[in-house]
Structures are given as C-alpha cells and as structure tokens.
Amino acid sequence: MNGEQQSGAGSNERISPTALLTAYGRTLTDIPFSRDIFEESEKIRLSKGEAAMPVEFQTPATAPRFEARHKLINRLLRQSGVTQVLEIAAGLSPRGLEMTADPDFTYAEVDLTGNAQLKQKIVDAITAKPTVGVRTNLSVEEGDALDLVSLQAATTCLDRAKPIAIITEGLLRYLNPDEKTTVAKNIQTLLKQFGGVWITSDTTAKRNSQNENAAVQAQSEKTKQTTGINTDLNLFKDSKETQDFFQHLGFTVEDHQLMEAAKELISPKKLGQTDKEVETLLSDKHVYVMKLE
User: Fold this and answer.
1) Which residue range(s) make up the domain with 86?
2) Which of 24, 83, 97, 150 would bridge with 33, disulfide CB 3.0–4.6 Å?
3) Residue 61: exposed, middle, or buried by beta-carbon count in 10 A (0-12, 13-18, 19+)?
C-alpha cells in the first residue's frame, strides 16, 4: 500500500451522505425499488426541514457503474447458492428489498444508527404498499463495520446452521489500511461462525482513478466535499495489490470485472452513452468473491 494514507478517524460516520449520491444514480436503472427508495428518502429529508438533494450532486453519467456493480454482485450472490445475507454499511441499497421478494432469502442490513433508522422508515413506507407487502425476512439493524460486537448482534436474525453471504458495496474505499484490516478481520470472524462468502466491490485502483472521465472526476470531487475524505489516498495501487492484501489476511480471492455485467445495463441507452464511454466507466473495476482459506 502507498505510504501516504487518508486518516479514517470517524470516517464511517462522515461517509453516510454518499449513499444518496449512489441512490440517485440507481434511479436511472431498472434495479427494483431504486426510485422508491430515493423518493422516500427525499420525502423524509424534506419533512425534517432538510434541503432536497442539490442538482449539482446528481451525476447521471456515472449511473452505469452503479448499475453494473449492483447487478454483478446480485449475480455472484445467486451463484454462491447462499440464501441468507448480511449487508454491511447497506445505506440506501435496494438489494434487501429486492432479494427478499424471494421467501427463501433472509436478509439483514446493518448500518450506523442514523442510517439504519432512516432505512427502516423507508422500508416501512415501501412495504406498506399492497403491491409489495411486509417483508418478515428483511431486518434492518444498527451496527458499525469497525465494531465486531455490533456486527454479531446484527446477525441474531440469521440461522447459524446455514452459511451467510456478507456484502460490502461502497465502504472500503473510504477506509484507511488499518480500518480495512479491522473490517476484514471482523468479517473473518463472522465467516468462521457461519461459513460462506464475502462479496465486495470496494476496491477501485489508484492507477485507474487517474484516467477517469470528467463525470467520474466530478463525482469524486463532490464526494470529497461531502465527506471531507480524500479517497484517492486510500485506494489500492492495482488489482494485484488488492488481491495480495486480502490473501495476506487469509482469504481466497475470486476476481470478477464490472464489464461482465455490461450487456445487462439499461442506463447507457437512457443516457445516450456509447459503448466506449461505458467501457471507460467499467474498465478494470472489480468485484471480489472471497472465502476463508
């Protein structure tokens, strides 16, 4: 890892607003519940006297990356055969609502207190609709990725006799190496208790961030403004360094690239993007499926 790193003290709280940026991007896709979640979130914000999401923070051109990431993780989750999930730092992810339409799935979302409370309100509003219905197999829990005790408490709704899939989407890039290590060791402990897999997409490489298109660079700057965190300082040098990091901690690593989901995307057509523009957004962006050695 690069010797110069962004301090992560308190960063798990500061990154919370970035969930809204991602949630907006998903509204330009066909991912179930994406628009419902974004609209309910905005209603709640406005009811509390907060401002609506500023237009300048809406970056449509990056939507294909969020869509590809979500759809590839979903595919890998289904391929794993695991039917109970713990999504850490779930934010405004629609995956819990989406997956629990299947009664065979049990899904626990965990996030910091404020985020979890907001998400519970959103879930309650959406599941109150007759077309959706109550999801007894979906639980929203309070917890911190850096705190093992809270993560273990969030799994009480899950069956310890069955393996779990742990998902982190959009968290690790905000954490410094020590924090990444803490999260990885916490996940190791959970996988030792349950068995299963860890699926993560939080590994943008520094080598690629320097060649991003203007839309991605703009969103990166907005993220820095929102969080006060220079994520560039927390990135891995390249895919090899990423895999070496996780392997050193005791994981086997199965590497997938976002381009694997390119044919499933609908947002590029909505946005009038060319295949080359989509390739630039997705090129050498990875999702890793990891198990204990």
Assistant:
1) 12-292
2) 97
3) buried
CATH code: domain of residue 224: 3.40.50.150
- Separation of alpha carbons 47 and 23, rounded Å: 19
- Rg from Cα positions in the chain: 18
Strands 196-200, 286-292: pairing kind: antiparallel
Comparing C-alpha atoms, which of 33, 7, 41, 58 is closest to residue 271? Answer: 58
Q: Tens digit of pLDDT for each residue in 7-24?
A: 333 334 443 557 888 899
Q: Is 265 left (phi over 0), alpha (psi -120 to 50) or beta?
A: beta
DSSP letters, 59-113, are -GGGHHHHHHHHHHHHHHHHHHT--EEEEET-TT-SHHHHHTTSTT-EEEEEE-H
In a domain, 6, yes or no: no
Tokens of 86: 């713990």
Q: What global pTM score does this model have? A: 0.88
Q: Each residue of 37-50: pLDDT tens digit?
A: 999 999 998 898 88
Residue 283 and residue 281: Cα distance in Å, rounded? 6
Q: What contacts 231, CB < 8 A, 6 or more positions away?
A: 6, 173, 174, 220, 223, 224
Higher pLDDT, 205 or 178: 178
Beta carbons of 111 and 120 less than 8 angstroms apart? no
Overall number of domains in the chain: 1
Query: Distance between CA atoms of 22 and 62, rounded to whole angstroms?
Result: 9
- Tens digit of each residue's pLDDT (9 = 90 or more) over 53-82: 777 678 899 999 999 999 999 999 999 999
